[in-house]
Amino acid sequence: MYDSFKRKITYLRVSVTDRCNLRCTYCMPECGITPLPHSEVLTFEEITQVIRYAVEHGVSKVRITGGEPLVRKNIVELVRMTAAIPGLNELAMTTNGVLLDRFANDLKSAGLQRVNISLDSVDPERFRQITRFGHLEDVLRGIAAARKAGLEPIKINCVINKSPDEPDARAVKEFCRQEGLQLRFIKEMNLETGQFSQVIGGDGGHCASCNRMRLTANGDLKPCLFSDLAYNVRTLGIEKAFEAALNNKPACGSVNHKNQFNNIGG
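The chain above was modelled as a monomer; its predicted structure follows.
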């Protein structure tokens, strides 16, 4: 699949829920959100139909996101269904790691290959401030479980305000060095103002070479994180939704007034 700017689309990010078990200050309001009604959330069968179409047309990498994907009931079964799709080369997940110690072995057995884990501080009190009520030890257990299960390479996503030289960022960098973890710094973004930049240590945020589409939990296929454009796979059908998203994928991101990070998966 190619968009109108001849960028080859090989990467689909799939948000399976807008719910999360944390309330990170840069992502969700402290009071939480009004979650999507169950009837609006794509079923596993619908999700895998979309992924299968994408893979048949050139997508080779799928990342499962949220919200927090591990709070979606029977998430291991979705991983198993996705991993069975012929032609899919890479299946990954981004998680906050809180529940990962419970799921790591089953996710690996189902076909998940690797994980990205969010970690913005290795100081327990700072971690709790950022996540509002998270416990650092839960994430550390998740990291250890992921390593033991073979969900590697493990990549750490660390959100920073302005610079990797911030105290929390420096401490996370040292932790990753000691633990042999790959690290990506992500500057805090704002969908409504269009504030974004390239990921430090990754390839996100580089519009000229963007190779991704996003599927939200309610079936909106989005050609760009920083855009209001969305084409629903239930309303239009999978093929027409992809055609519209490809034809209208913008050259560069601008603003997004219709989504929040909890329902688009970053």
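The mean pLDDT is 96.
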